[in-house]
Amino acid sequence: MLGSDLLRSDLWLRDLWEHAPDAMALSDAAGTVLAANRAYYELYGYAPDEVIGSNFALIFPVERQGTARAQYEATFRGEEAPPPVRAVVRSKSGLERVVEVRVVFVEEHGEREAMLSIIRDVTDEVTARQQAARTQSDLRTLLLSLSHDIKNPLAIIKGHAQVVRRQIVRHGVSARPERVVDSLLHIESNALRVAELVDELVEVATLDQAASPSLHLSRIDLTLLIRDAVDRHQRLADLHQFAVDAPPESLQGVWDERRLVRVLDNLLGNAIKYSPGGGLITIRIAAEERACGKSDPHSGWKSSAQAGVLVSVEDNGIGITADDLPRVFDRFHRGANVPEATVGSGIGLTSVAQIVHQHGGTVDIASRVGQGTQVSVWLPLYPLESV
Length: 387
Hints:
- By secondary structure, the chain is an alpha+beta fold.
- The protein folds into three domains: 2-121, Beta-Lactamase (2-Layer Sandwich); 136-205; 217-292 and 303-386, Histidine kinase-like ATPase, C-terminal domain (Heat Shock Protein 90, 2-Layer Sandwich).
- Helices cover 42% and strands 24% of the residues.
- It has helices at residues 2-19, 38-44, 48-51, 65-77, 123-171, 177-205, 222-236, 257-273, 348-358; strands at 23-28, 33-36, 85-90, 96-108, 111-121, 217-221, 240-245, 252-256, 279-287, 290-292, 304-306, 308-314, 362-368, 372-380.
- The strands form four sheets. Strands 2-1-5-4-3 form a five-stranded antiparallel β-sheet. A five-stranded mixed β-sheet has the order 7-9-12-14-13, covered by helices on one side.
- β13 and β14 form a beta hairpin.
- α5 packs antiparallel against α6 and α7 packs parallel to α8.
- The termini are far apart.
- The relative contact order is 0.08.
- The mean pLDDT is 81.
């Protein structure tokens, strides 16, 4: 009966060992692995014959194996078992994981004979915490940048409201109407700018949850729209000069005026912001046809040309690094070479791409660090929504 109980106990312990969710390995004073369970082999990708009889350090990157052995020996000789520690280990396939390790000593006659390492994979937990920290940092940067972007037009609104109040207090009904009207126009335009910033944030923040807002299309003179945008930004940029290279004839098409103004404001604002030393900002406008659809050599059908307009904004600023260039349209992304003092929410180009693509157009960026950036926007004269 006693032998049967011992057999059942032994089978139960073996089953517990093999099916434990945590990886476990038993190793001697020299670090040689004496036994390991199924979870251990699954975590590290080694077969039993590769592990048993080998040093435990095979799970560490080669450059860290010597340090791991020294730490193991110090732990084995220590008076007490250490608290759980975390380490980066590497599977047979080269995949690195973060693990948390607890140890239990196996003793006989008061002497340590072996050490049981209980290993839990905490990679997902660590990754989630790092992502949460990055998200919190991105949110903090976004809020600081938005507060700066909103404070500027609010300050202008406040200043012109004070001008109107002083005019009325001092002169009553005889206040200079041209001064009052000019101030009211500034208040209105900057209030609209604040509203645009809020709309832009809402649209970019909900890219993953909802479709883009519908376009409100009307016939627009794009050349005139661009010249108006340049005039607005020239008044705010003392260190910069603007040059507009446009054909003599107007370029008219069917677009959403309010949203194209946002595109232009973002592109011109970026050109000013990322060329802090001043200099020339060149805006080029040209009619350009582009192929619509793909040719089929078997049927003889050829792609048709679609009329459009190409607008480019070029500065001589800090430029964009080669590593950052593929990510410039990512939400909240900021370039590695952007000075800390340069405010920005990281949503401007995301919004530009969203609006241009909704119109059926394209956005391209060419840049060299220290030499400047050129952003090119092509828009069809008639978006699909207008057909």
